[in-house]
Predict the structure of Beta-ketothiolase.
Amino acid sequence: MLRHMLKEERMSDPKSIVIASAARTAVGAFNGAFANVPAHELGAVAIKAALERAGVDAADVDEVILGQVLTAGEGQNPARQAAMGAGCPKETTAFAINQLCGSGLRAVALGMQQIVSGDAKIIVAGGQESMSMAPHCAYLRSGVKMGDFKMIDTMLKDGLTDAFHGYHMGITAENIARQWQLSRSEQDEFALASQHKAEAAQKAGRFDEEIVPFTVKARKGDVVVSADEYIRPGTTMEVLAKLKPAFDKEGTVTAGNASGINDGAAAVVLMDAGEAARRGVKPLARIVSWATAGVDPSIMGTGPIPATRKALEKAGWSVGDLDLVEANEAFAAQSCAVVRDLGLNPEIVNVNGGAIAIGHPIGASGARVLTTLLYEMERRDAKRGLATLCISAAAWAWPFVSSGIDPVLERHLKPTANFGRVPEEGCFFPAKVNAERKHAGESVLFRLRPMACDCGQIPDVVRTNTENPAISDSSLIRSRVVPYINRALPPHPSLGKASARIET
């Protein structure tokens, strides 16, 4: 009983886990810039950048969890290789997870669960993949007595072939196109839009902040790779229309309306909101819920439909509540089916293009999609976002709230001033409010961890971290602060009632 109580005290609220930072490498083309770079070297650079952006020392990381699908020939525990390559000490543990295209998001889920359970404070999670370096292999344990022997492409065998039917993932897209009655032109139009959005985003520098440059050692001198190289500028419908079906002679799925074969890595730093507050970290987002769902492997690309519905239900959201959606584009066919069946607004889906244009390094894509979503949410000051992608026979979906704000609250103006903190309550509010009360409406407290609140006690003054506190009018506190305490901090059943005291 005592052990159970102590364990409960160490556990974090599942809805208080935040993403402190995120970083990714550029996405390399197949046999392109990263052709000879092992996945763990890409992962190391992403991890190091994510830690630097969070202001977290590598020695403070409890564990590193990375998704990776194609590990043949990589050596033992490539996640551990990446962690130590990023500067994590030998005491820091690490492991890799393989859930195909969902590996990067599964790593984040596992990291979140580690923190919620009280087994860790800080986790680095993400994904890494080198499809270019996936080896060919042969079954030669018993030898070859006579004749030729077959080489197996591990990229196809372990990453791109449905294990239940024995056919390429492209056939699952053909199945969806037929069942959802998606024409070739509809798929090509979706692919064209992805290319155009990605091209525009790259030219405008919208990927620059999320990408960490990677230096490739070469005989003719070092080459710095800081931009996605798979995007095809100048793509037109005429170009796409000329491409032949790639998987079925009578089909509609082509190389142009399917995602690429790529290399890359991405990583995020996870902690609970209390840890972020103690470190002075302003999180990129708070994880609200997550869900997985299985579907018939023959139409695996439709997995995001049930997974998204489950995740939104757990969050208490509807599709109409979403400000942004990043949905991995394995194929245009499955992407169109997902958008149609969920009733997503196309204007908020993959606003900077998706995997058809950017690329799809399978073990890293979940973390790449998440990273791109987080930076675009911050750029737009979006409140609610969703990351989702299909995997073989299942799917992931993750709703996020930007900047750690509770979904019951509304933020009307992005604060530009410093934040004051009430350590006892774990609450934040703008520290600078001018004499004209111009920003009075910003006086919103939001939850960092579950706590009890007896709203009968009205605070008269508010602590700030400025030398000359600007908030001192008790009427302002009563009218602005207290109602938000009422909404954001309801009495907690396991904690009972307590006064939400805010004092100088």
